[in-house]
């Protein structure tokens, strides 16, 4: 059981503080913050999420720049506490619409009310927004959401694409729209985070997709919902990693998941037969299904790096990226980064003539090259030339002292796994009942690295 | 709803408190509610608003739940500081607990349980009794937790009122939330009680497994964790349990998955069918890997657990090494753990892939990570003989990049590789020597010097290389000085020419006359004496063959590993420490686990000179010591059996009987090193207290075929800093003979940090055998000093002067006091002194005192019914952290 829960700002101010058991001394928030801060300063390292100071165990997670912390004196399950901290953040976000320091401070009474229902004497009672609704009486006070960064991966729908109704993401599950009526709508987001490591010769060394089908429902009366996925969806790699597995699955076009798990509201009765999920979605945002794929997939970007030495104190780096997805798809907020040798003193950049929305930078402090592109249309390629000047002679092999090249990006309406929601059926209450349904796909780079 | 809550934080001109007071007493509901919100706002930012207690409590009687909750929040915070006023709230609480609205009933019980004020607690019992049987499950589940709250405040009350039975009934409740909370509450109560309260039978097991399917995710964790303490009767039952638990592996909540893994791993121990086990391993792999897709914080916990799991069952993830490759955006704490697991999973089959990764990591920017990657390459070389050469060539490639810290780290690991594969890879020494000038870290320098000394005969300019270090000898850190000393001696023994001879003069002079480091000086003198008396003997000693080191990547001791595995999915499995090493509140279990396992392991790594020094310093072998303290020896074997059982013998033999049934012929001291593990040498030993001094009473029996001599003893760091106060006096032991000795002990020498424990690690060596290590237990009562007696008045004053938080108590359900006199005599013999006694109903209450070195007193209260099992021991002391050890000692003394 946990002893205390608190939320600290980046500066270490305590925004919310609730003591459940009174067995941890008062100054725990300060002790925690000092420890985390000095961990960084001492070793240049990040404090691990779980540590012990003077018999008190501290657990923390970072959510939108805030530290969610719990303390305990007992040998309890750390994954329970860390998971709980994430869920508390999600529940608060469900209620407040937006989670940040400002919204927490404005709604502190509601937050304390929530905390008392979520945890009793250190034991988790429930983190279901749906269940909590019957016990919570305070109403949230909305803050101006427009300029605030929201929580979670669905945040990426906020940027760029006009097709996405941006307000949905920052809407509270309990508050009414201005005008009194609630809009009947449901969001299903297929979010895939991809990790790829390319070898220096361009081969894929490792690749992985971490996917989530996330749902957020604003339907009144909680109707039953059916989600149909690809009919030929396979689960589990048969046996080891034989070449047959890769060849076979890639050839037939079937999507094969290594492993998946489901939210507790999901009924899997018909899943084995026709790959449909049945559920009564609880209020709030929640993952319907998480899945993991190591089956080979087509990487959305290819990266080509060329390093040429030009004399003992100069070198040129040529970076080329090619977008290998269809031309009706556009990736946005692309950032390409590459660490340069520590003795690099100056870098001059050269972009292709006529490019717009691209910027380049040499970060002196950590000797890092940064190239950002606002948008990349499918099928296009882009090149950057960087001329490096060194303050000392290189040891002979620049490629050993620079790189790897890493990339971050977001690609809306595209997912490399080809997992699809074929249809989204809502049990009808009446003939006129026809709520808005949003099924959205997005792909994001997790660890996208090319070695040089 | 009016505006923003944050406006409540704004201050007013008039003075906040009077204004709030006025508003709290307003006739308008809304105004009162707003005022309470302002009070709460002030409270949360740390302002003292306790003076408004009465006014806030007056707002409590309301039908408005929002307002009621706010008032309750206030009450929880301030009731403790205003216990007299808190009583004002009792009536409303009791009334609320019978409200028709179940939310209000539950809220009343929940809040009362959080107010740790005696007057409130008294009134809690009746409502709690009702709520435990309430019709509404929300009320029952709140009441279940409330029992745990009450137990924490007043355990006796819970037992007297029969709440434990009511709680046990709730395990069969039809609502899974109620079941889960009842399980959680019972588990907590069990944790703080020494009596069996919540034992899982096969009946409760099946009930709980059924409830598991309907519970919330959190309830599933409570239940799985409680069930993990269950020991299945046989393989079939274990298989049944596993079958019921396996579906939990598909849960989206990582805590559920890990708790299920723990449960399955535990039951697997009992399952005999290899097919079933293989199948289970296969089922566990994907969910374990999926944990690595969660948030980095969860990944960290998962990795620390996986680290343990692969040590026990390497097959589970043998094919999954790729998922442990580091991602560039992993936090450093995740990367470090992944490296550790990669080393553990590295095999001849995947080593090429793994080396490619390590090489890549070794060129990253984070210095600590790079160092660890380099070290990982070395560890793979030591672990996988067939891959050693490839590992070395990767290390050499890295050295060529000439990044300073990479080079230094590489040299440190290459030294270890040389220890593992002697005389195999010296061809690379020349490459290493090129980097000599760049070394500036002591460990790297010391490693390089060791290599030069060890291979002095194959390095043409070894003398020049060493000489270059000698110039700065006085400034070097001790680690480097020691290595320089040994390396120079090695060089001289291998190449006894003029150059080295001069060098050895300089070094010995530097290391004896010009230093104040005793280790260095002693070692130098030993070498000096060796070299001057018998150079051949010196050669035998200094150039002796060293034991080959082994891979340390499975470094956990098997018994510790087993304990940690039984604690999978708890903090213990993240810290890799047994729970008692970091949990301060939990009762100490009977067995004390070792904390420092590294010692034995490091020994094999540490360089030979340390041993050389030891053997060099041992006293002349065969001279029997004339001052053998035969007179003082209580000669444990000769200790008269205490026929009258009056506890007259304070030599500690009474304690011995606990560990060892006193067989008349057998040795009265507990055996700490059986002959079977000591190559025929058997050692029995025990700490005792005689004449106000602590001795280590020992007996050596030589059952081997050779005479043994030159016995020496050393104690590892321990909680009390116990160390030998003199030489170990043992004459030469002919085969078939034995000898006893009393080694005087001193305190506060080498104090190990961390929580107090009773572990005493001992190392014994002699001239014929390897060093023996064994663990003994420190009996706390040997520290009770003779001057522990207290006057009654002093006792009372001391008792009063110590805060209540220093009072700790413990029940000994199995102990019996049959006669007060006998017991008191017996305790007095161990320096626990009687002060007073009184009768309370049918119970005898005894007051005693004891004192440990540095004058730390213990004030003791023993409560028992004469002749009936069950003794309660309460103590007060300025050092409550010693309480668990103290209790253990008292329990031992009472048993005998």
UniProtKB/TrEMBL annotation, chain A:
**A Gene Ontology cellular-component term:** endomembrane system
A Pfam family per the record: Adap_comp_sub
* Signal sequence range: none
Its main localization is: membrane
Q: Which residues form the MHD domain?
A: 183-451
The UniProt keywords, alphabetically, are: Membrane, Protein transport, Transport
Alphabetized PROSITE patterns for the sequence: MHD
Q: Name one GO biological process term.
A: vesicle-mediated transport
What the entry lists under InterPro entries is as follows: Adaptor_comp_med_subunit, AP2_Mu_C_sf, AP_mu_sigma_su, Clathrin_mu, Longin-like_dom_sf, MHD
Q: What is the lineage of its organism?
A: Eukaryota, Viridiplantae, Streptophyta, Embryophyta, Tracheophyta
Which CDD domains does the record associate with it? AP-4_Mu4_Cterm, AP4_Mu_N
Q: What is this protein called?
A: MHD domain-containing protein
Where in the cell does this protein reside?
Endomembrane system
Q: Which organism is it from?
A: Solanum pinnatisectum (tansyleaf nightshade)
Tell me the superkingdom of the source. Answer: Eukaryota
Annotated Gene3D superfamilies: 3.30.450.60, Mu homology domain, subdomain B (2.60.40.1170)
From TrEMBL, chain B:
Transport recorded as keyword: yes
Q: Where is this region: Disordered?
A: 586-636
- Give the UniProt entry's GO cellular component terms: clathrin adaptor complex; clathrin-coated vesicle membrane; Golgi apparatus
Task: Enumerate the Gene Ontology biological process terms.
Answer: intracellular protein transport; vesicle-mediated transport
Membrane topology note: Peripheral membrane protein
Q: Which Pfam families match?
A: Adaptin_N, Alpha_adaptinC2, B2-adapt-app_C
InterPro entries membership = AP_beta, AP_complex_bsu_1_2_4, ARM-like, ARM-type_fold, B-adaptin_app_sub_C, Clathrin/coatomer_adapt-like_N, Clathrin_a/b/g-adaptin_app_Ig, Clathrin_app_Ig-like_sf
**Which family is this protein grouped under?**
Belongs to the adaptor complexes large subunit family.
Record text on subunit structure and interactions = Adaptor protein complexes are heterotetramers composed of two large adaptins (beta-type subunit and alpha-type or delta-type or epsilon-type or gamma-type subunit), a medium adaptin (mu-type subunit) and a small adaptin (sigma-type subunit).
PANTHER family recorded for this chain? ADAPTOR COMPLEX SUBUNIT BETA FAMILY MEMBER
Query: What name does UniProt use for this protein?
Result: Beta-adaptin-like protein
């Amino acid at each position: 059981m946990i002893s205390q829960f608190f939320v600290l700002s980046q500066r270490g101010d305590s925004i919310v503080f609730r003591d459940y058991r009174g067995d941890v001394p008062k100054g725990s928030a300060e002790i925690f913050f000092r420890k985390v801060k000095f961990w960084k300063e001492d070793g240049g390292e990040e404090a691990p999420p779980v540590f012990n100071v003077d018999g008190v165990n501290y657990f923390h997670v970072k959510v939108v720049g805030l530290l969610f912390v719990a303390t305990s004196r007992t040998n309890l399950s750390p994954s329970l506490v860390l998971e709980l901290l994430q869920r508390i953040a999600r529940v608060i976000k469900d209620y407040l619409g937006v989670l940040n320091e400002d919204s927490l401070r404005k709604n502190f009474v509601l937050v304390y009310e929530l905390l008392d229902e979520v945890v009793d004497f250190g034991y988790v009672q429930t983190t279901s927004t749906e269940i909590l609704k019957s016990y919570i009486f305070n109403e949230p006070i909305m803050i101006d959401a427009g300029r605030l960064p929201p929580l979670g991966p669905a945040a990426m729908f906020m940027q760029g694409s006009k097709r996405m109704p941006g307000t949905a993401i920052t809407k509270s599950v309990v508050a009414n729209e201005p005008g009194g009526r609630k809009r009947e709508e449901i969001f299903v987001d297929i979010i895939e985070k991809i990790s790829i490591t390319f070898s220096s010769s361009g081969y894929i060394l490792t690749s992985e997709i971490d996917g989530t089908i996330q749902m957020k429902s604003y339907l009144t009366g909680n109707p039953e919902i059916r989600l149909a996925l690809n009919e030929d969806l396979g689960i589990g790699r048969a046996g080891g990693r034989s070449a047959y597995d890769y060849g076979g699955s890639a050839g037939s076009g079937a999507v094969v998941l290594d492993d998946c798990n489901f939210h507790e509201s999901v009924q899997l009765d018909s899943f084995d037969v026709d790959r449909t999920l049945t559920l009564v979605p609880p209020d709030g945002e929640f993952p319907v299904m998480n899945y993991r794929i190591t089956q080979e997939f087509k990487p959305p970007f290819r990266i080509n790096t060329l390093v040429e030495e030009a004399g003992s104190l100069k070198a040129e780096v040529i970076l080329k990226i090619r977008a290998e997805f269809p031309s009706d798809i556009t990736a946005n907020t692309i950032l390409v980064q590459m660490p340069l040798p520590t003795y690099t003193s100056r870098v001059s950049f050269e972009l292709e003539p006529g490019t717009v929305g691209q910027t380049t930078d040499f970060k002196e402090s950590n000797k890092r090259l940064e190239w950002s592109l606002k948008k990349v249309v499918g099928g296009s390629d882009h090149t950057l030339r960087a001329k490096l000047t060194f303050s000392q002679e290189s040891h002979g092999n620049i490629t050993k002292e620079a790189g790897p090249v890493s990339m971050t990006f977001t690609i809306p309406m595209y997912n490399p796994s080809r997992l699809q929601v074929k249809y989204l059926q809502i049990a009808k209450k009446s003939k006129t009942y026809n709520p808005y349904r949003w099924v959205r796909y997005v792909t994001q780079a997790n660890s996208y690295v090319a070695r040089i | 709803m009016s505006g923003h809550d944050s406006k409540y934080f704004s201050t007013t001109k008039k003075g906040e408190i009077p204004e709030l007071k006025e508003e709290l007493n307003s006739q308008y509901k809304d105004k009162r509610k707003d005022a309470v919100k302002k009070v709460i706002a002030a409270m949360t930012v740390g302002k003292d608003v306790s003076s408004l207690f009465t006014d806030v409590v007056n707002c409590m009687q309301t039908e408005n739940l929002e307002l009621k909750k706010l008032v309750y929040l206030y009450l929880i915070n301030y009731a403790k500081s205003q216990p007299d006023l808190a009583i004002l709230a009792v009536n409303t609480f009791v009334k609320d607990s019978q409200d028709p609205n179940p939310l209000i009933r539950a809220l009343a019980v929940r809040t009362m349980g959080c107010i740790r004020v005696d007057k409130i607690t008294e009134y809690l019992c009746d409502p709690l009794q009702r709520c435990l049987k309430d019709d509404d499950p929300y009320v029952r589940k709140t009441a279940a937790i409330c029992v745990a709250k009450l137990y924490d405040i007043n355990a006796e009350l819970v037992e007297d009122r029969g709440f434990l039975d009511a709680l046990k009934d709730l395990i069969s409740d039809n609502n899974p939330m109620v079941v889960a909370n009842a399980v959680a509450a019972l588990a907590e109560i069990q944790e703080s009680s020494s009596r069996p309260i919540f034992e899982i039978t096969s009946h409760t097991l099946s009930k709980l497994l059924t409830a598991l399917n309907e519970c919330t995710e959190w309830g599933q964790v409570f239940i799985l964790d409680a069930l993990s303490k269950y020991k299945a009767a046989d393989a079939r039952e274990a298989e049944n349990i596993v079958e019921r638990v396996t579906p939990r592996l598909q849960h989206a909540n990582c805590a559920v998955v890990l708790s299920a893994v723990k449960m399955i791993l535990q039951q697997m121990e009992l399952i005999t069918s290899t097919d079933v086990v293989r199948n289970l391993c296969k089922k566990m792999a994907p969910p374990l890997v999926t944990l690595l897709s969660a948030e980095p914080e969860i990944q960290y916990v998962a990795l620390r657990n996986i680290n343990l799991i692969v040590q026990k069952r390497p097959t589970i993830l043998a094919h999954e090494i790729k998922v442990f490759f580091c991602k560039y955006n992993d936090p450093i704490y995740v990367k470090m753990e992944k490296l550790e697991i990669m080393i553990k999973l590295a095999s001849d089959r995947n080593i090429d892939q793994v080396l490619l990764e390590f090489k890549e990591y070794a060129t990253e920017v984070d210095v600590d990570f790079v160092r660890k990657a380099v070290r990982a390459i070395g560890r793979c070389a030591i672990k996988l003989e067939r891959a050693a050469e490839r590992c070395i060539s990767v290390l050499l490639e890295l050295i060529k990049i000439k990044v300073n810290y990479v080079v230094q780290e590489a040299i440190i690991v290459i030294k270890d590789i040389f220890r593992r594969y002697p005389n195999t890879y010296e061809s690379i020494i020349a490459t290493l020597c090129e980097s000599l000038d760049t070394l500036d870290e002591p460990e790297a320098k010391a490693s390089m010097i060791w290599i030069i000394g060890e291979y002095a005969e194959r390095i043409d300019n070894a003398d020049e290389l060493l000489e270059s270090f000698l110039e700065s000898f006085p400034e070097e850190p001790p680690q480097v000085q020691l290595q320089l000393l040994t390396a120079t001696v090695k060089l001289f023994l291998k190449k006894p020419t003029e150059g080295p001879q001069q060098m050895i003069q300089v070094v010995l002079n530097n290391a004896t006359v010009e230093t104040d480091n005793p280790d260095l000086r002693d070692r130098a003198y030993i070498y000096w004496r060796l070299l001057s008396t018998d150079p051949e003997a010196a050669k035998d000693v200094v150039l002796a063959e060293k034991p080959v080191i082994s891979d340390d990547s499975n470094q956990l001791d098997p018994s510790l590993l087993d304990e940690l595995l039984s604690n999978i999915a708890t903090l213990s499995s993240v810290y890799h420490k047994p729970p008692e090493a970091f949990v301060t509140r939990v009762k100490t279990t009977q067995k004390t686990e070792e904390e420092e396992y590294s010692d034995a392991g490091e020994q094999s790594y540490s360089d030979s000179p340390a041993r050389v020094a030891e053997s060099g310093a041992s006293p002349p072998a065969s001279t029997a010591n004339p001052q053998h303290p035969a007179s003082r020896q209580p000669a444990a074997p000769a200790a008269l059996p205490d026929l009258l059982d009056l506890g007259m013998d304070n030599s500690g033999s009474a304690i011995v009987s606990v560990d060892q049934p006193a067989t008349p012929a057998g040795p009265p001291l507990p055996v700490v090193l059986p002959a079977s593990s000591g190559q025929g040498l058997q050692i029995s030993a025990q700490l005792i207290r005689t004449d106000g001094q602590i001795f280590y009473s020992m007996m050596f029996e030589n059952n081997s075929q050779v005479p043994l001599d030159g016995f020496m003893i050393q104690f590892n760091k321990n909680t009390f800093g116990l160390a030998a106060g003199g030489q170990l006096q043992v004459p030469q032991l002919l085969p078939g003979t034995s000898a006893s000795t009393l080694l005087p002990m001193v305190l506060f020498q080498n104090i190990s940090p961390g929580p107090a424990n009773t572990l005493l690690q001992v190392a014994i060596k002699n001239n014929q055998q390897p060093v023996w290590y064994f663990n003994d237990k420190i009996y706390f009562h040997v520290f009770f000093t003779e001057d522990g007696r207290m006057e009654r008045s002093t006792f009372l004053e001391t008792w009063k002067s110590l805060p209540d938080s220093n009072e700790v108590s413990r029940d000994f359900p199995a102990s019996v006091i049959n006669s007060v006199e006998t017991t008191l005599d017996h305790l007095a013999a161990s320096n626990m002194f009687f002060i007073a006694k009184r009768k309370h109903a049918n119970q005898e209450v005894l007051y005693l005192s004891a004192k440990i070195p540095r004058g730390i007193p213990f004030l003791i209260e023993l409560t028992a019914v004469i002749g009936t099992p069950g003794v309660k021991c309460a103590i007060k002391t300025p050092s409550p952290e010693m309480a668990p050890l103290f209790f253990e000692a008292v329990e031992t003394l009472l048993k005998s």
